[in-house]
Amino acid sequence: MAELTVDNLVVTFGHGSSAFNAVDGVSLAVPHGTIVGLVGESGSGKSTVARTIAGLQKASSGTVLLDGEDLLASRGVDRRRRATQVQMIFQDPYSSLNPRMTIGDAIDEVLLTHTDAGSAARRASVMELLDLVRLKANAIDQYPSQMSGGMRQRVAIARALAVRPKLIVADEITSALDASVQGSVLNLIRDLQRELQLSMLFITHNLAAVRYIADTTAVMSNGRIVEHGPSAELVANPQHPYTQTLIEAIPRIENAGGDRLLQSLGA
Ligand SMILES: Nc1ncnc2c1ncn2[C@@H]1O[C@H](COP(=O)(O)OP(=O)(O)OP(=O)(O)O)[C@@H](O)[C@H]1O
Ligand SMILES: [Mg+2]
What we know:
This protein is of the alpha/beta class. The protein has one domain (4-93, 168-265): Rossmann fold, CATH 3.40.50.300. 44% of the residues lie in helices and 23% in strands. It has 11 helices and 10 strands. It has helices spanning 46-53, 76-85, 93-96, 103-114, 119-132, 149-162, 179-196, 207-213, 231-236, 241-254, 256-265, and strands at residues 4-13, 20-30, 35-40, 61-66, 69-70, 86-89, 167-171, 200-203, 216-221, 224-230. Strands 6-7-8-3-9-10 form a 6-stranded mixed β-sheet, with helices on both faces. Strands 2-1-4-5 form a 4-stranded antiparallel β-sheet, covered by helices on one side. The two termini are 27 Å apart. Adenosine-5'-triphosphate is lined by residues 13, 22, 40, 42-48. The site of magnesium ion has 3 residues, from helix 1.
């Protein structure tokens, strides 16, 4: 996978006196084969950073480089190619899956769009991808409604991996799941990072989650990154007052959930 470098990214919403910078000069690197966590309060600009990197939101200024290639400058064919280089996974996999399509067809659809492989080769790829995300082979004939939230999120991960992206941007992908299921999805992400050298920007409210899977973690507040360091250190010894508040707030807000998550992860 690739190295992502975001430099001085600004995203402005609104016009005139109501204009405000949802992203206000963010610089961030995701080195090849690492997971970088991005945490911060609601509205701090995390999803806007994610969407801009994935090309779903226009930047006002700044650069986003993937292995040195400027993603913001790409146009036309370049833009389409870029869409395969950066894959985004969202909180609610249900909304991105067609309820009338089997899981096998949903993954095949991605392969059909992005590869020249024939049907037999694609079917083999679908089986491989299901195996990669630890779903049983019979999932191929199931419909999204027959699956749990955790299984559907595995399908979303399989679809993202199907195009062999250089970078995955995961926005709150475990937030809607039960604590126990969160743990298993995080374990999967961690395993996949090791197996495939994934480069990933992992956005979450859950500090236990970033401590578990992210090499480094950046903390956002009001459109800016206020702290960025090794995840374990950041959680154990937050430097910025804002990070300290965030860490204090977690046990209150998520209460037993976070602790259970940590226990289920053996962390
Ligand atoms: N398309 C848009 N138009 C106008 N304002 C927007 C748009 N998208 C986001 N915003 C605003 O930008 C700010 C940052 O939003 P963003 O969704 O990036 O935050 P977030 O950190 O992902 O929050 P959450 O944790 O709730 O997901 C918020 O004030 C939001 O209301
Ligand atoms: Mg968000």
